[in-house]
């Protein structure tokens, strides 16, 4: 029985450790896009290499995050959390020392593995450690501090890129890990699920990651028109089919297909794919547009996008309360439309763009759209399945959002005609950026239509989100689940494999 009290010294250390650990992954997810133009110049990398710098991390994170929490259940949540922190820090060190783009991309993929171990552990440790009377407040403080971290990230990242250099975006994780690990080992109690059983769905996780990697490669390199690209595309689709086949046949699947028997769950995940594909493309391209075309510094670009996160941090809890009163249909319909309008306003952001007149209105409108939709999206996902599968549903939804974002980053340059050197030319990038914003806005409108035609008010006794405050923009909040007084993470009906959870504050 967890008995750590929040007011005790140990309780404060547990909270500090989990916030610090999750902040490592959060900072990288929010600042790498800002560093891309400088990385490209320093490493003489083309646009495809920059796409992979963003996507290599997401490929392994999205493919393995459904497995991360169940590893903690089986082997100990503190142990897996510490392994994730150390792994992430070593991979970050490799990123910071990378002599070329190839090494950086490989190190980013390794970072994603660390993130898949680290990200689920933060909230799992809090929920498993604190006394039930303090658990809600501890989760609230953790998600609130995480939201502050999400707001600080772009500012800090821009300052690092303009000052010490982009390598410090990654190297900063090393001292954070050196601080986090000994505190975790000394003050965080070990916890696990003694009833965890069944085999881990390693094959499913590998097939999912391989499918994402091959499809991403095919989209990024499609302009080459080579046989290798065609083979990669076919192999990626074959891996996706094999993933579905394996999940249908395994007794303990990572992603049980029968969860999609809920029409509402399926519909909300379609909305998620639309929303986070558009957001992934937007944040990847906008950071480059502001620097390459509008002449902003890295710090200026990071600060320019900051209001979106601040609005989510300040208003996400109230948005969730409103959705509980009026139902999720209207917020999930209006939110994507507001975000789409914000992206269309970005068409005004060109050479010598005025921040107050051109950038700020677009970013504010986008932020209001995210405020309207993110909290109701999470609540609807949790409400659309049986309470015993809430963590699993949340994990699938989070993984879908990350996969949508990485596919968008891979596909948008192809669809908008960006050449390999487009980011080196202000005119070429500006023209393609305009087409990309129209495409992203269109995808958001499709998501709005799906929400309006399919989403219905959930039952009054359904599961509600625990993490009410969040500031991440690249993935929705993740939630754990409680059954019969014990913590479980995304467990299906029969297996130990499942979705790991944390709040949206831990990034995208």
Automatic annotation (TrEMBL):
Ranges where the record places region Disordered: 484-508
UniProt domain Major facilitator superfamily (MFS) profile: residue ranges: 14-459
Protein name: MFS transporter
Organism: Streptomyces bobili
Cellular localisation: Cell membrane
Major localization listed first in the record, in broad terms: membrane
Residues passing through the membrane, by range: 12-36, 48-68, 80-99, 105-126, 138-160, 166-188, 200-220, 226-246, 267-290, 296-317, 329-347, 359-387, 399-420, 432-455
Membrane topology field: Multi-pass membrane protein
Gene3D superfamilies noted in UniProt: MFS general substrate transporter like domains, Multidrug resistance protein D
Lineage, opening ranks: Bacteria, Bacillati, Actinomycetota, Actinomycetes, Kitasatosporales
Family matches, as InterPro entries: EmrB-like, MFS, MFS_dom, MFS_trans_sf
CDD domains per UniProt: MFS_MMR_MDR_like (cd17321)
Highest taxon of the lineage: Bacteria
Keywords: Antibiotic resistance, Cell membrane, Membrane, Transmembrane, Transmembrane helix, Transport
Record has NADP as a keyword: no
Cross-referenced SUPFAM superfamilies: MFS general substrate transporter
Biased composition regions of type Low complexity, renumbered to the chain: 494-508
């Amino acid at each position: 029985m967890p008995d750590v009290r929040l007011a005790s010294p140990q309780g404060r250390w547990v909270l500090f450790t989990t916030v610090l650990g999750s902040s490592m992954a959060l900072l990288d997810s929010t600042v790498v896009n800002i560093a891309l133009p400088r990385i490209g110049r320093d490493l003489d990398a083309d646009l495809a290499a920059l796409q992979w710098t963003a996507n290599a991390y997401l490929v392994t994170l999205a493919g393995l995050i459904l497995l991360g929490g169940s590893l903690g259940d089986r082997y100990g949540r503190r142990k897996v959390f510490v392994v994730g922190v150390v792994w992430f820090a070593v991979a970050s060190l490799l990123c910071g020392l990378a002599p070329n783009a190839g090494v950086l991309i490989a190190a980013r993929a390794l970072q994603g593995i660390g993130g898949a171990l680290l990200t689920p552990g933060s909230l799992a440790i809090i929920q498993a450690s604190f006394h039930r009377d303090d658990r809600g407040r501890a989760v609230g403080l953790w998600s609130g501090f995480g939201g502050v971290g999400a707001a600080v990230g772009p500012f800090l990242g821009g300052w690092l890129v303009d000052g010490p250099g982009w390598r410090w975006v990654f190297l900063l994780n090393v001292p954070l890990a050196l601080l986090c690990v000994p505190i975790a080992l000394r003050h965080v109690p070990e916890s696990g699920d003694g009833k965890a059983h069944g085999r881990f769905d390693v094959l499913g996780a590998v097939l999912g990651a391989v499918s994402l990697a091959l499809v991403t490669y095919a989209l990024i390199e499609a302009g080459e028109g080579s046989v290798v690209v065609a083979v990669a595309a076919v192999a990626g689709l074959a891996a996706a089919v094999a993933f579905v086949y394996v999940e249908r046949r395994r007794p303990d699947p990572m992603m049980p297909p029968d969860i999609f028997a809920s029409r509402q769950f399926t519909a909300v995940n379609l909305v998620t794919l639309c929303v986070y594909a558009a957001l992934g493309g937007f944040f990847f391209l906008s950071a480059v547009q502001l620097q390459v075309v509008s002449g902003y510094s890295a710090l200026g670009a990071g600060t320019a996008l900051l209001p979106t996160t601040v609005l989510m941090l300040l208003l996400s809890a109230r948005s969730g309360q409103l959705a509980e009163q009026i139902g999720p249909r209207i917020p999930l319909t209006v939110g994507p439309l507001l975000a789409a309008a914000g992206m269309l306003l970005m068409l005004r952001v060109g050479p010598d763009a005025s921040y107050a007149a051109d950038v700020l209105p677009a970013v504010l409108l986008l932020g209001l759209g995210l405020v309207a939709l993110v909290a109701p999206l999470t609540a609807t996902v949790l409400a659309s399945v049986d309470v015993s599968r809430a963590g699993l549903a949340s994990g699938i939804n989070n993984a879908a959002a990350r996969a949508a974002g990485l596919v968008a980053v891979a596909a948008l340059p192809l669809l908008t005609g960006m050449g390999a050197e487009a980011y080196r030319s202000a005119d070429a990038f500006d023209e393609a950026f305009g087409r990309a914003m129209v495409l992203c806005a269109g995808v958001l409108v499709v998501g709005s239509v799906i929400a309006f035609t399919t989403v219905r008010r959930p039952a009054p006794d359904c599961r509600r989100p625990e993490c009410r405050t969040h500031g991440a923009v690249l993935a929705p909040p993740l939630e754990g689940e409680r059954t019969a007084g014990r913590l479980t993470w995304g467990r299906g009906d029969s297996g130990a494999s499942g979705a790991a959870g944390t709040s949206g504050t831990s990034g995208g």
